[in-house]
Specification:
Number of strands of chain B: 0
Largest sheet of chain A: 6 strands, mixed
Strand content of chain A: 25-35%
Strand order of the largest sheet of chain A: 6-7-8-3-9-10
Shape of chain A: elongated
Largest sheet of chain B: none
Distance between the termini of chain B: 28 Å
Number of strands of chain A: 14
Radius of gyration of chain B: 18 Å
Oligomer: heterodimer
Radius of gyration of chain A: 24 Å
Order of helices and strands of chain B: HHHHHHHHHHHH
Helix content of chain A: 25-40%
Order of helices and strands of chain A: EEEHEEHEHHHEHEHEEHEHEEHEH
Chain lengths: 302, 220
């Protein structure tokens, strides 16, 4: 199942929100990452057929997303759309089941989301985490092959987040899932493909590792635990392998390099050659947050 | 079948989500009914309003304003509470949903309008034409008020416009009823009393509601 976003632009009045977006998204989990106002919700609304693009189109397996047949293939967890507070969980899902002609599926989605116990409870009496789970249950009705999840983790406590994250991860092999978030940690943990959106532009797209390679001018950082850190540091400087280094404590050297091969192969080789024992070799993970900051700054400059 | 089930659930949704507004509306209708009944039992009102029809009693400006406000509250309910997104993301035609919405609103309005009308019969005159006009007026109020809500995209503006329209038209009707000017004033649809212009305003507005609702953008 494929989502093809073809030259999509969207304006609200004179304000451009999305600018010529071209993406093809296949099976697996794709994280849509961007700051508030980047256009994430607009893009998901267009993909779900709720918004009409000002230009371009979104095709769901070749069908325009505005068509009713396309809507049968999509499960959407919207961020802003509320659930009628006076209905019970079951009544709401029953209504959604009638509209999508999947009334038979209610018990299954209640079980998956762990909401069976609370199905007779009024929606206004649910916690934020349960509320999100009801929205997730509604998105799962009819077992649609595509799930669009807009900020699914918003306002949920850590335990609730883990639960929801596990629900999403359990579906990664069978569905095309796009979820938007500005919680970078969640994207890192869940997505196998990342799209970075800023001011309506796609700044970067690829695997978390692939995006990391974009950072050509951000050094790799490493902490090495050794029995002779000062000797190791001076050798690394002499050989021109590192750009910056310092002794952090009596056993640890911190250094930075722009070369991935130095990081991965050369430093261990040098240590072996000079008979320096290495006990720990800990590359500092370039967290997605830093990546995001770096790429969005580059976007601003562009 | 799906549409009938949606109608039943949409009715449940409107009744539950707007129960305070609907109860207030029914309370208002109840007061008018009691008032009419008391007047009937006293035999006073019949004498005073001999020339009036029962129909004109309940189309008084204040009633129209109350019905209008109720129709606007009901029509905008799923828009203001965001439920519309959950309806639109499902494979259901926008036109069908609007027709279902208008049907339910008409039904709820009739819950108030019919008792008022029936009690008005006690103190006035009854015939089948007036009875049919009552139902048609309820439909027309639903369509016109809903149309204005969609066009103005603002509940308050829609209510005020509709209220002003109802008040002005009914007021002009009453003021000019005895003179020749009234004949042509009443023919001007925009200021003529609501029940006189049925079904034209509704018929013109309905496709406009479809068109504008189709173009309504909903952010997820």
């Amino acid at each position: 199942m494929e989502i093809k976003i073809d030259s999509v632009s969207k304006w609200y009045g004179n304000k451009p929100v999305l600018k010529d977006i071209n993406l093809t998204i296949g099976k697996g989990i794709t994280g849509l990452l961007g700051p508030n106002g980047a256009g994430k919700t607009t893009l998901l609304s267009i993909a779900a057929g709720l918004l009409k693009p000002s230009r371009g189109k979104v095709l769901i397996n070749g069908i325009d997303s505005r068509k009713e047949t396309a809507k049968t293939m999509i499960g959407l967890l919207p961020e802003n759309t509320r659930i009628p507070s006076e209905l019970t969980v079951f009544e709401f899902l029953q209504w959604q089941g009638i509209l999508s002609e999947h009334s038979h599926d209610i018990e299954r989605v209640l079980d998956i989301t762990g909401m069976a116990k609370w199905k007779r409870k009024k929606i206004k009496h649910l916690s934020k985490g349960m509320y999100q789970r009801v929205k997730f249950a509604a998105a799962l009705l009819g077992d649609p092959p595509i799930l669009l999840l807009d900020e699914p983790f918003n306002g949920i406590d850590p335990a609730g987040r883990k639960k929801l994250r596990d629900f999403i991860l359990a579906l990664k092999d069978e569905k095309t899932i796009i979820f938007s978030s500005h919680i970078l940690e969640e994207v890192e943990m869940v997505a196998s493909n990342i799209i970075i959106l800023k001011s309506g532009f796609v700044l970067a797209e690829g695997s978390p590792e692939g995006i990391r390679h974009l950072l050509t001018d951000v050094p790799y950082k490493i902490r090495i635990e050794s029995d002779s850190p000062s000797r190791l540091l001076s050798i690394l400087f002499e050989e021109g392998m590192i750009n910056m280094g310092r002794i952090e404590d009596k056993n640890t050297v911190y250094c930075e390099t722009f070369s991935f091969s130095t990081l991965a192969y050369e430093i261990p080789k040098i240590a072996l050659k000079h008979r320096i024992n290495i006990y720990g070799f800990v590359p500092e993970d370039i967290r997605l947050e830093k990546l995001f900051e770096y790429i969005t700054q580059r976007g601003d400059m562009a | 079948m799906k549409n009938i089930k949606h109608l039943s659930f949409y009715t449940k949704y409107l009744l539950k989500q707007n129960k305070m507004a609907i109860l207030t509306f029914l309370l208002y209708a109840g007061i008018i009914v009691i008032w009419n009944t008391i007047n009937y039992t006293r035999g006073l009102f019949i004498q005073q309003t001999e020339a009036e029809t029962a129909y004109s009693v309940f189309t008084a400006a204040i009633n129209l304003i109350v019905f209008t406000v109720m129709a606007v509250i009901l029509y905008t309910s799923d828009i203001t509470d965001g439920t519309i997104g959950y309806i639109r993301m499902r494979p259901l035609s926008v036109e069908i949903h609007i027709l279902i919405k208008l049907t339910v609103i008409t039904f709820i309005l009739l819950l108030g309008i019919l008792p008022i009308y029936i009690s008005s019969v006690l103190i006035g005159r009854y015939n089948t034409v007036y009875f049919l006009l009552t139902i048609l007026t309820a439909i027309n109020i639903s369509i016109i008020s809903s149309g204005l809500s969609v066009i103005l995209k603002n509940n308050k503006a829609a209510m005020l416009t509709m209220a002003a329209y109802s008040g002005l038209s009914t007021g002009l009707h009453s003021t000019l009823i005895g003179g020749n000017i009234a004949t042509w004033v009443k023919t001007l649809s925009l200021i003529a009393p609501l029940y006189k212009v049925f079904p034209w305003v509704g018929i013109i507005l309905l496709p406009l509601i479809f068109l504008l609702e189709r173009r309504r953008d909903i952010r997820a």
